[in-house]
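Re-run with default settings, no changes from the original entry. Doing this only to confirm the output is reproducible before filing.
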Amino acid sequence: MTLILSLKDVEQAINMKNMIEQIEEGLVEEHNGNVNMPPRMNMSTNNQGFFRLMSAVMNDSGYMGFKAFFKSGPVVRYLIGIIDQNENNLEAMMDSSYLTAVRTGATTGLATKYLARENAKTVGVIGSGLEARTNLEAVCAVREIEYVKVYSPNPQRRELYAAEMSEKLGIKVEAVESPALAVEGVDIVNVCTNTSTKGNGVAFEGKWVRKGMHVNSIGSTMPIMREIDTNTFETADSIVIDTKHLETESGDVLEAIKSGQYDPSKVVELKELAAGQKVRIYDEQITLFKSVGTAVQDIMAARAVYEEAKKLNVGTDVGDFLEAKMFN
């Protein structure tokens, strides 16, 4: 059987805590060395578009799959396919526009679980879009957050974010008038902006970092994009990344490398933390998590949705529609 999951189906089948756990399992498998995950493929198209493909084969769990997303003009579409290699079966294909944002949040939640102080209670958010929502939800899944401040350049959007997330999470979320105010005195910072190719794109500056702070940055996924300044990398005592590939993909990291402020001796991959390596050693330590997303994260997030969808009986089963061909 192959289950087709629409955007609405995926939204019904989201369980953040389960997704964090599934991604953690996938990262342990990646750490153990039995995952084949090539760099993502980026191809430009007409009409200022692109086609991006991410894939992985996970030989311990027997999962494999891909995510494709493609842009034509202002419209972007996302698709994930997951395959059970032991059964030789395409288990599901699903809209992954919302899922990508939730996966990003879940990975941030996992990093925060390892890197934020155990007694962290406050969060500063820069950004008010979908990923700013999913990332805060994930942080609240791993820490007992009591108070949040949010900044977005658009006053209406930040006020709406504050109202909606206060109601959803049952905590006080307050809109503030500057990014510096949003991060002042907080334990955890989520920088979740709509990174742009216009201007320098920097939304968070290293001069705002304070002792004991943990910073999550999930934007700047292409070389021409920026979200945090180079001083942030220099100020951090420890830097955790979700993949070494971002050192050639993220504009933030490329600029920090160029300026000599990206110290490889401070850098650890998230999969090492999932396998038990300790990074936060003392309370005053400053930690930074920088991510661009990986196929392993996508596949495990999609598996979490697929399993929940079967429990809830949502989606459309189209049967075994792929013809089997004998190959000797």
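Residues 34 and 176 are 46 Å apart (CA to CA). Residues 97-115 form the longest helix (19 residues).
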